[in-house]
Amino acid sequence: MQPPAVTVLGAGLVGVATAWLLLNRGYPVCLIDPAGAGEQAAEAGTRAALGLLMAQVYRRSSGRGWRLRQRSLQLWQQWSDQLAQQGSALPFRPGLLQLASEPQELEQQQRLVQERSAKGFPLRLLSQEELVQLRPQVPEGALGGLLSPLDGQLDPIASRQLLLQDALSRGLELVSDRAEAIGASSGADRWQVQLASGPRLQTPWLLVCAGLASAALLEPLGHQRPLAPVLGQALELQLPAGCDAELWPGSVLWQGINLVPRPGRRLWLGATLEPDLVAGACGDPAALEALRQLQGHAPDWLRAATPLRQWQGLRARPVGRPAPLLEALEPGLLLLSGHYRNGVLLAPASAEWAADQIAAGP
User: Which of 113, 100, 121 has the alpha carbon at shortest distance from 297?
Assistant: First the structure.
């Protein structure tokens, strides 16, 4: 039997990853996004992400969040291997170092290493003495650190573009338009999409991966899934001569701030958490400065770094429901949104969930 066609709304990393996986499984896919193959809007959630993959250091050891994180980490590796065989490579940097700034946090790290080591996870603790030896120097207030060699960081913009280009080579139909409304249809094509340019597209399967725009599309159908915007600001810095963060054993997390080494002695620093800001709003300069100063703990080399650019984006946080929203709302209508701060990490597992739902049928 011919696999049913699937329409995906939203070409952020989650939407593109879902379209890519479905194409790999033989489904005809239409991807709709105003930006098309170009750069997404400045407020898009993917643009707010720095791409840290925090799976094996996740505090919980059971439940949906744990399972999604572990499966996603496995899938990212599988996808990377598949793309490498085709001559491409996902921009993944292994290693994640979480620094402890308080005794309670250090104790939690110690318990987590004991628990995960018994299950075969290669986590290990770095002592304060070992951290002092790292160059460039990490914040002096670090009491210890939890190193996860299999977690790491994935460049979200470059990964999205790579998956999108590979999907286009596999026959992806990409529609550069905005979905203004969705509604039920009759016959085998159960759903229709009203495009801003006028046409209506019909499809048997409709996947809503439109981030913050998802709530407005679903509300007329009676599905209340409110999403709150949380703005994140980030910086790219040029580090001083002789200072290269790529010498670290991975990306560094300090008091909720991500420090991501980049080629050419550069560093990504982010991201702020600024709730209740809407598209087009500017982030708080004070929040950006606190980020720049690591909440007052920035080493001298970081204070001497030169800002190259700053950017911001809006994350979609579910209101009254746990993130992410992975729901079969009606036959043929799936919701994949509200990933909040883990859209990059959870994109593969979200895509697999949607593919499994379609394979099982309405």
Answer: 100
